[in-house]
Design goal:
alpha/beta, 8-stranded parallel barrel
Length: about 240
């Protein structure tokens, strides 16, 4: 597997940011999130879940919300932070203001909506990334839904390209597992490192995502969402 961090990428990064990318290479990012109203929806609980993931070998953790981001400081691994807000199509760190708050809370990597859709503050994706660059040293992960999104995000200067929104924006069909085809398409077209994310439910699927061209793999539900995992077993027994 080839490291997707290219010489051009390395030249424009300071050593600390380049080192963060290197730590993710071939590794597992564990998404530690609970939905509003759930029993585990508490920053202290998410911090414990994240700590357990690190004990298991997670290369990084992905957490949602400013309190949760702050709660996982000191784990010794990169923090991918995001802020889900609003009920519009674009709700993953939807504005520049949200992104800067995520950075201030302690995220090493800011995950933002990486699609070409209209944002609540009227800024384009390129405007948002430029604004983050001016005010923060954090890396930027663009959560994309298609190859066109990934190309646009890379051109705008995103450090990481996630397949997080594949199947959710209307540009691609929703696959039952990870969208391996999209990962391969982005790997063939883009130079920025790819984070495979979305519907990765087994270790075998995670390995397949790396083989398809991902730099690293992010898994959430199958590791950190007991309600969903329990429902899988209940359905199998029914």
């Amino acid at each position: 597997m080839t490291d997707r961090a290219t010489p051009d990428t390395a030249r424009r990064m300071d050593p600390a940011r380049a080192a963060t990318l290197a730590r993710l290479h071939g590794g597992l990012i564990v998404s530690c999130q609970a939905y509003p109203g759930e029993a585990m929806r508490d920053p202290r609980t998410m911090a414990q879940v994240a700590a357990a993931a690190v004990v298991g070998g997670a290369a990084a953790v992905r957490v949602q919300g400013l309190a949760d981001i702050a709660s996982v400081a000191g784990l010794g691994v990169p923090i991918v932070g995001l802020w889900k807000d609003g009920d519009a199509d674009v709700f993953i760190t939807p504005t520049l203001k949200h992104a800067l708050a995520v950075a201030a809370a302690g995220a090493d990597i800011i995950a933002i909506d990486g699609t070409r859709r209209r944002r609540p503050d009227g800024l384009t994706l390129a405007d948002t990334i430029a604004g983050i660059r001016e005010r923060s040293d954090a890396l930027i992960m663009a959560d994309c839904g298609s190859l066109a999104d990934a190309v646009a995000a890379e051109q705008a200067g995103a450090d990481l390209l996630g397949t997080t929104l594949a199947g959710y924006t209307g540009e691609r069909a929703k696959t039952t597992g990870p969208d391996l085809e999209l990962i391969a398409e982005v790997a063939a077209r883009c130079e920025a490192p790819i984070v495979a994310e979305g519907r990765i439910h087994t270790p075998e699927q995670a390995a397949a995502a790396l083989a398809a061209g991902a730099h690293s793999v992010c898994v959430g539900t199958a590791i950190t969402h007991p309600a969903t995992i329990t429902s899988w077993f209940v359905a199998a027994l029914a």
